[in-house]
Amino acid sequence: MDTILIGIAGGTGSGKTTLTQHLKHHFGDDITVIGHDNYYKRQDGIPFAQRCLQNYDHPDAFDTDLLIEHLRQLKAGKPIQCPVYSYKDHNRTDQTIEIFPAKVVLVEGILIFQHPVLREMLDIKIFVETDADVRILRRALRDVEERGRTLQSVVQQYLTSVKPMHEQFVEPSRKYADIVVLEGGHNLVALDMIMQRIQHHIDGN
Questions:
Q1: What residue spans of 28-171 are helical by DSSP H?
Q2: In whole angstroms, what is the distance from residue 195 CA to residue 200 CA?
Q3: Strand 80-86 versus strand 4-10 pairing type
Q4: What is the pTM of this model?
Q5: Phi first, then psi: what are they for 94, rounded to 5°?
Q6: In what side-by-side order are the strands of the sheet with 124-129?
Q7: What is the block-wise mean pLDDT of the chain (205 residues), using blocks of 10 residues?
């Protein structure tokens, strides 16, 4: 099976997940999705209060080498045991999810274009760009409603790590993108173009 790797990057709250979900819903089992967030490093032995203060938007927070190895295995037609991350506990769990190879593997994350080895592995690189005000509001709603955070903690994290890390690492990686999608999954014209490209690959296998 000829597998292509498609990277979907962009700032927090930009619409990466919405775009990814649209593609997964449309193509079903022909697409496998892997989130870079699942590859946050383990923090066993570190108190919860200290884990809450970690910078999760810096490249060093991720075990990207493991993600690279897993993508190589999928390209070789082998299943992987993908880690499972708990946003509530700020730590990787002991669970894994078995992920099987597919014709298309979508890799989603804020920093996937920042790592040179990972970046070179990606056949198509998509950067989702959305206004910063919209992104922070989306993140605040998501973290409060889905991840049990307080609004105060979300604002504090945004100002101390999310915003500076976006400016230092995420935004500069935009230059590596093959396609820049404004407004993520809500951009139906861009979505249609991406789906046509994926369909072309699937039909050719």
A1: 48-51, 64-75, 116-121, 132-146, 151-157, 163-165
A2: 8
A3: unpaired
A4: 0.90
A5: -85, -5
A6: 31-35, 104-108, 4-10, 124-129, 179-182
A7: 93 89 94 96 91 90 97 96 92 95 96 97 96 82 81 84 92 96 86 95 86
